[in-house]
Design brief:
The chain contains eleven helices and 20 strands. By secondary structure, it is α+β, with helices and mostly antiparallel strands. The strands form six sheets. The chain has a six-stranded mixed sheet with strand order 16-15-17-20-19-18, sandwiched between helices. A four-stranded antiparallel sheet has the order 7-8-12-10. Strand 7 and strand 8 form a beta hairpin. Helix 4 packs parallel to helix 6, helix 5 runs antiparallel to helix 6 and helix 8 crosses helix 9. The radius of gyration is 29 Å and the shape is elongated. 40% of the residues are buried.
């Protein structure tokens, strides 16, 4: 790359063709409009600049860089990297000051491959910055941006970033919500009013995420043996006969090993993925699996009407993502879910009360 700082007299002595192909390193104000920094000078803009210098209307020095054969313009480098970084559910906006925004093509959950992303960002001068992994996003929302700092970039730097993005990417995707039926099991005595409130809350959340609430089965027998047998029957009906993939379970505490639910789950070949997740409020939620179904539980049915860590887990289940203990462990980073962190939730949960707050 060749660079130069041309004063007005020096520019006035130059032929316009000498400037063609150079890149402006600083913006220039002309009587007929401004040329922004990063502008690639063509024949027209070169003629404007030399004429302005000769006419005395350009008084500031001109800062220029001429690319070498191995250099790329910032827009070309950012565009190439953005195409490699983005995957399914990602659209690219046009370059703006060498920054390209990646936007969600549909509502869903943002997935970011954090470790390859870190390695791309370790390459000078590449920059890729994103929203949070696992965050609920909506169509048209900016979820990531790609930028390069200088106006000219060495091809070798871009090639190094592309190798990572192409072999370990895509680094950024949006997984869409899948239309499906979701059912609930309530393992506690609930009044008709409480049950109606729970079902309204569950229906509101699921409708927002493209799913359909398909009803609640209440099992509240005081005899653990009877309750366990009844729960096993319900699980058979929902999972094996109806093929339900996501089940909400209320009234089963992650810290209560005596709940008849655990015996019923084990009897049908189910397993517990994790008791409790590293996020609060809602750290006592749990996740289990039985066949193709994933079961999301909270200590009480009433907690499903509040904003808890379950509102980070449920949207991901509704994209068809198979959550395991390792992926749930990721919730700890950013898992202090204060009001300031509500942006990570789907829109429905941002104004809901938390368990330690009074309900509206």
């Amino acid at each position: 790359m060749r660079i130069a700082r041309l004063t007005t007299p020096q520019l006035a002595d130059r032929a316009a063709s000498d400037l063609t192909g150079a890149v402006l390193l600083a913006s220039v104000r002309l009587p007929d409009g401004q040329l922004a920094k990063g502008t690639r000078i063509d024949q027209t803009s070169a003629a404007r600049l030399t004429a302005a210098a000769r006419n005395g209307v350009l008084t500031e020095p001109l800062r220029l860089a001429w690319p070498d054969p191995d250099d790329l313009h910032e827009d070309d480098a950012a565009s190439g990297l953005a195409r490699a970084v983005g995957g399914a559910g990602i659209d690219l906006r046009p370059p703006r000051q060498s920054r390209i925004d990646l936007v969600a093509s549909w509502d869903g959950i943002l997935r970011v491959e954090a470790e390859p992303l870190r390695r791309v960002n370790a390459i000078d001068p590449l920059e890729v910055f994103t929203a949070f992994h696992g965050q609920a996003v909506i169509r048209g929302q900016v979820v990531a941006s790609v930028k390069v700092a200088p106006h000219l970039v060495a091809r070798a730097a871009l090639a190094a970033g592309l190798r990572i993005a192409k072999t370990e990417g895509p680094l950024v995707e949006v997984h869409p919500y899948l239309p499906q039926d979701v059912v609930a099991i309530a393992l506690e005595p609930v009044t008709p009013v409480a049950l109606d409130r729970f079902e309204q809350g569950a229906r509101m959340k699921l409708d927002t995420l493209g799913a359909r609430f398909a009803g609640t089965t209440v099992v509240s027998d005081a005899d653990p043996c009877v309750a366990s047998a009844r729960i096993a029957e319900v699980l058979d009906e929902l999972v094996r006969r109806r093929g339900i993939r996501v089940i909400l379970v209320g009234g089963v505490s992650a810290g209560d090993p005596l709940s008849p639910f655990w015996d019923a789950l084990a009897a049908r070949g189910g397993t517990v993925v994790r008791r409790g997740v590293p996020a609060h409020p809602g750290s006592m939620i749990w996740l289990a699996e039985l066949g193709d179904a994933q079961l999301l539980g909270l200590p009480t049915c009433g907690m499903f009407t509040l904003a808890t860590a379950a509102d980070l887990v449920l949207p991901r289940l509704l994209t068809g993502e198979r959550l395991d203990a390792e992926r749930l462990a990721e919730l700890g980073h950013g898992g202090l879910l204060t009001r300031d962190m509500r942006f990570r939730f789907p829109a429905y949960a941002r104004d809901l009360a938390a368990p330690d707050e009074p309900s509206e």
